[in-house]
Amino acid sequence: MSGVGALVVAAGRGSRLGGDLPKQYLPLGPWPMLRFSLARLAAHPRVRVVRAVIHPDDRDLFAQAAEGLDLAEPVAGGATRQESVRMGLESLADGDLDAVLVHDGARPFLDAALIDRVLDRLAEADGAIPAVPVSDTLKRVDAAHHIRETVPRSGLWRAQTPQGFRLAALRRAHAQAAGGPELTDDAQVAEAAGLTVDVVQGAETNVKITTPEDRARAQRWLQDRAETRVGTGFDVHAFADAPGPVRLCGVDVPHDHGLAGYSDADVGLHVVVDAVLGALAAGDIGQHFPPSDPQWRDADSAVFVERVRELVAARGAAIVNVDVTLICERPKLGAFREAMAARVAELLGIERGRVSVKATTTERLGFTGRREGIAGQCAASLRVSPCALLTGNGDDNAA
Fold first, then answer.
1. Apex CA 227: angle with CA 221 and CA 231, to 5°?
2. DSSP code of 152?
3. d(C-alpha 52, C-alpha 92), whole Å
4. Domains of the chain with bracketed CATH
5. Taking a C-beta distance cutoff of 8 angstroms, is the pair 50, 38 a contact?
6. What's the DSSP call for residue 25?
7. Cα–Cα distance, 305 to 309 (Å, whole number)
8. 312 contacts 391 by C-beta, under 8 angstroms
9. Cβ–Cβ < 8 Å for 195, 164
10. Among 17, 65, 69, 274, which is least packed by CB within 10 angstroms?
11. How far apart are CA 203 and CA 205, in angstroms?
């Protein structure tokens, strides 16, 4: 496919799930449910444009769910799913697009391999959908809940999305189906128009969330697949000619000399920032807060920590603990360690018991032993949701 567009259908109300919001905007882990599929499709290298079809009343909710993602402007949907897809297809007028993926906003856990299987199959068919074979015995039941027959399951598959089609062909198929009986998915629309639609292997994890039980299972799935990551940070600042105090981990410590640096030279907070960014694989402090940027001159390093804390939350992660070591002969830091740990915990938004601040010397060896400056190092561990895999590549700029 030379050009692939993706439509994410999210114009429904989702009443069966309950709650004050349409289901696609309810939180799932750290994000609104809709963001998962938007982020995965936007990150896929073969998808050129991603557009959501939304309810006209949901523009503010959509803006929050899609913040920071590279998406086309959403379009308003219609009274039915079929009408919403047709309106979305009409909006994809870019002549560079020759294929389209249509995905349900309530299926958050699609993956890149599944997208590839659908797109690869379009080389041989007008359309392709992911599906999984039916493994349970099927019963046809009447209104009184009496079994009337057992339905043979041979050859039966459960259809999923994203469903892929030649864009022009699906647009024509939807135009032909408009005004007729409501069809349940785009494959049925294509079948009615005489198009060839093939099946590729779907994924059991590619579930559609419809009920509160579905959402609870999805929450557990995210929790079970979270992983622990560790990052480290190291920094050095020389003493300046100017008088103290020295600021370390957000606490002013009396000393004859301050520290030299473009910001406030807080070695303790700088290593915390680098350790957390390392655990996220999101670059380093110099990338996010470059000294070439005048806004960071003499800046309070607490701002750096707060910005990185926001990045952690945006990545669907949580800080487990940080362990800071400050290395110097002078000043003596023992009396300030508790205040430092409390301040770091406050800035990171975690419990005090998850922060350790230690101080040591180099036994008068090296530049710290000669009292020329202070060094710091930090290890940080984060609990990272699978959501983190859908965002960024280390180039985020927290500034």
1. 155
2. P
3. 11
4. 4-224 (3.90.550.10), 227-390 (3.30.1330.50)
5. yes
6. G
7. 6
8. no
9. no
10. 69
11. 5
pTM comes to 0.73
Which among 325, 292, 322, 326 is positioned nearest to 305, based on CA atoms? 322
H or E, element range at 35: helix 33-43
Contact 56, 84 (CB under 8 A): no
Instruction: Determine the Cα–Cα distance for residues 198 and 176; give it in Å rounded to an integer.
Output: 21
Per-residue model confidence as pLDDT tens for the chain (399 residues): 569 999 999 998 766 666 678 999 999 887 899 999 999 999 999 999 999 999 999 999 999 999 888 999 999 999 999 999 999 999 987 568 999 999 999 999 999 999 999 999 999 999 999 999 999 999 999 999 999 999 999 999 999 999 999 999 999 999 999 989 999 999 999 999 999 999 999 999 999 999 999 999 999 888 888 889 999 999 999 999 989 899 999 999 999 999 999 899 999 999 999 999 999 999 999 999 998 899 999 899 999 999 999 999 877 789 999 999 999 999 999 999 999 999 999 999 999 999 999 999 999 999 999 999 999 999 999 998 776 555 443 333 332
User: Which residue bears the tokens 């480290």?
Assistant: 232
Handedness of CA 357, 363, 369, 371 (dihedral sign): positive
Residue 112 contacts residue 44 (beta carbons within 8 Å): yes
DSSP H helix total and E strand total for the chain: 12, 18
Q: Which of these, 215, 233, 234, lies nearest to 223 by C-alpha position?
A: 215
Residue 388 and residue 128: Cα distance in Å, rounded? Answer: 29
Distance, in Å, from the CA atom of 203 to the CA atom of 160, rounded to the nearest integer, reads 9
- Give the integer Cα–Cα distance in Å for 259 and 339: 19
